[in-house]
Amino acid sequence: MAMHKRLYNVGAILKGLSITLRFMFARKPTVQYPSVRKQHAPRFHGLHELRRYDDGKERCIGCELCSSACPANAITVIGAENAPGDRKSPGERYAARYEIDELRCIFCGMCEEACPTDAIVLTPRFEMSDFRRGSFIYAKDRLLVPADGGVGTPPDERPGGIPADLGGVAGKKSTLDVGSGYDATYNGSLLKTQRKGLTG
Ligand code: SF4
Ligand code: SF4
Fold first, then answer.
1. Among the atoms of ligand 1, which is closest to the Cα of residue 100?
2. Is 180 inside a domain boundary?
3. From 2, 17, 87, 121, which residue has the greatest number of CB atoms within 10 Å?
């Protein structure tokens, strides 16, 4: 092999090693999730929530515009008339049923754009993993901001930040212990026990 070819090879190896060495001492981009959590981009699109007005009334008026705008057909809204003595929203109607299938959702934010009352918003929450498809259908019990959860304020403007577990989602979801398999639970009821295939 010609001398210049050998020198070229040595140079290429040294160049490769220098890159390795540089990254060995560079600041690592990975974080020790879940004990360390990375700050999201301000406009990150995660799990939805349904907001309320300052007086506690639901912003959603059951108009179904979000459902029509959704390109993934992920939203189901069934509106109903407000009863005079028990108004759920300031409008004539409210959402008697409101569901989002988060497995269909592509987190595009079109529902947020379409909503005339700023009722539906996407938050930076992203921890939704589960073992059952059904648990990804979020209904009002898990979407509607509870009375003490920052009523009237968009999620990214709340002084206390965004509640990590709106609607007690974590308590309702499955639990996983990779050492001993997992127990799939929902609302405290055991749905399935899996002991194989997760260890080793
Ligand atoms: S974020 Fe997009 S895909 Fe998801 S529910 Fe809203 S409109 Fe549909
Ligand atoms: S969330 Fe907004 S767009 Fe969707 S039904 Fe309610 S008011 Fe209409």
1. 5
2. no
3. 121
Compute CA 137 distance to the chain's CA centroid, rounded to the nearest angstrom. 12
Q: 114 lies in a domain?
A: yes
Residue range 11-30, pLDDT digits in tens:
899 999 999 999 999 988 88
Residue owning the nearest CA to atom 6 of ligand 2: 60
* pLDDT for residue 85 is more than 90: no
Among 65, 66, 70, 73, name the best residue to mutate to test ligand 1's pocket (greatest count of ligand atoms within 8 A of Cβ): 70
Residue 199 forms part of a structural domain: no
Exposed/middle/buried for residue 1 (C-beta within 10 Å: 0-12, 13-18, 19+): exposed
pTM of the model: 0.69
Question: Residue 125 in contact with residue 162, Cβ under 8 Å?
Answer: yes
Find the 167 Cα to ligand 1 centroid distance in Å: 20
